[in-house]
Amino acid sequence: MYNPGRPPLPDLNLIRLEYDFAARFGNDHPVFDRNQWRSGWRAIHRNYQNWQRLNPDRHTWKSILPAFEQGDLRISPLTSSYDLAQEGYRMRHCVALYAKHCLAGNYRLFSISEISSGQPLVTIGIMKEDNYWKIDQIKGRFNQVPEARAASLGLIIQRKYIDQDEFISGEKTREKMLDRNRCIEQLRAEHELYLRKRHKVPEVLRDRFSNDEIDFLEKQGAWLSALASGELRPNAYEQVRFVAVTKGIFRPRTESERIWVKYLRTPIANNV
């Protein structure tokens, strides 16, 4: 019987609605107009659900470790602020507050549940610190100490996540190496193209150079000119030094540097 001396019992469905909404709302920051704000909790919640449908990718992240099963338990990654809010409501803890860390990419959360009943047992969080994933927390319902069979999965999740992270990092490294090799091959082909070109030495300059020097200029003049002008990128230290010599940073040291500097100092060569 209702006792007028006591306050009425709270509406549990409304409490659940408010908790779920508040946890997700704090992360998503949806934009409502003035009338929507004045419409009350239930209407705001409906507006929020509509806003979520229009913004499906907001506050979501990827887990490199997909869901998997271990014995009679299922491990599921939590990959959105909505997932965290739902997990927080089921487990009665504040996991929803970790959305910003998950979005930053240095935190991942997993829900452990029974396969048969779907009952959630444990929430496990791993954190990336100094490029290493470590277990940050293993929490049961109401932040209590979880069951041993579920808690033991923390190490398994950590190991699997590290292995997957290292595999992806290795793939990225290999991809970078392939890109680097492709760039090197392309640069080498550009150098070979210029080396096949013949450089025309003006007739009036031929009496200033020996036959060997003329032969050198004709064979490598186009290539050296492209290097000196910046049209062709160097791919070896000797070529970098050659460019520095043409800019007056270093004195010529090799025979090819001396010949080219001598060639550049002739007025006619500068106009060719």
List keywords for this structure.
11 helices, 52% helix, elongated, alpha+beta, Aminopeptidase, single chain, 272 residues, 5-stranded antiparallel sheet
Structure summarized in a few sentences:
The protein is of the alpha+beta class and 272 residues long. The protein is 52% helix and 13% strand.
Please characterize this protein's 3D structure.
The protein has 272 residues and is α+β, with helices and mostly antiparallel strands. The chain folds into three domains: 12-47, no CATH class; 68-165, 3-Layer(aba) Sandwich (Aminopeptidase); 189-270, no CATH class. It contains eleven helices and five strands, in the order αααββααβββαααααα. Strands 1-2-3-4-5 form a five-stranded antiparallel beta sheet. Helix 1 packs across helix 3 and helix 7 (153-195) crosses helix 8 (211-229). The longest helix is centred in the middle third of the chain and has 43 residues, at 153-195. The radius of gyration is 35 Å and the shape is elongated.
